[in-house]
Amino acid sequence: MHFNILTIFPEMFPGTLSGGVVGRALEKGIWSFDAINIRDFAINNYGSVDDEQFGGGVGMVMRPDVLGNALDSVKNRGKIIYFSPRGPTLNQHMVREFANDKNATYTLLCGRYEGIDQRVIEEYDIMELSIGDYILSGGEIAAQVFVDSVVRVMDNVLGGGVEATANESFEIGGLEWPLYTRPSAWRGRNVPEVLLSGHHGNIERWRKQQSDEITKQRRPDLIKEK
Ligand code: SAH
Q1: What number of other Cβ atoms are within 10 A of residue 226's Cβ?
Q2: pLDDT for 226 beyond 90
Q3: 8 Å CB contact between 67 and 116
Q4: Helix, strand, coil proportions of the chain in percent (round to 5)?
Q5: Substitution site in 8, 49, 83 for ligand 1 pocket (most atoms within 8 Å of beta carbon)
Q6: Could you tell me which residues are beta bridge partners of residue 51?
Q7: Which candidate among 130, 138, 172, 187 keeps its CA 20 to 30 Å from the CA of 50?
Q8: pTM score over 0.90
């Protein structure tokens, strides 16, 4: 999988994506990226990529001519995604869909300032995608969230194979059950007896029941979705 990342802060990549399983996948060549500096396509020697908003108001907007030239510099763009609070919110189902084709290319456009000129979105048939109902100062963190979540579910990224991701919150149609590891007794708190019993049927039932309970309390909306 390949990502073309358009940003005015190319030094922010791979950033957090260099660590852990996703970082190892980068080293193994399961995914690759090019960070393209939008400033290289600036309209003047000052490196301007933004301008005042038509119609007035505070805040600058990224110029379509600059972004158009930056996008045109990418030979194989694949699907173009602009991170924006206006898009549908990324969820695990969408993550799976994006991860489906291991040879896919995605071009990720990281906005800054107030965002980008609307005409760019139309001209390149760009998909808008949000990572949640809050406002970031730029799309770079959103791009890292996207790459991390998508690469993570690709084959040979997590140890433990299919099972490692199949048991996760959202994948099981709800939230995960409580997790425990050694020591079995800690500060007077004991691990639930059933988990030490070795009885797989009982353990599975307990986990299912815990998961249902927690989901019902915290995220009833996930149950309705099922
Ligand atoms: N004026 C915009 C917010 C601009 S924030 C609005 O009101 O909708 C600056 C940039 O940060 C955006 O262009 C976008 O690329 C990124 N960004 C901010 N919040 C985001 C979110 N929730 N999801 C994805 N990207 C976001």
Answers
A1: 7
A2: no
A3: yes
A4: 40, 15, 45
A5: 83
A6: 61
A7: 130
A8: yes
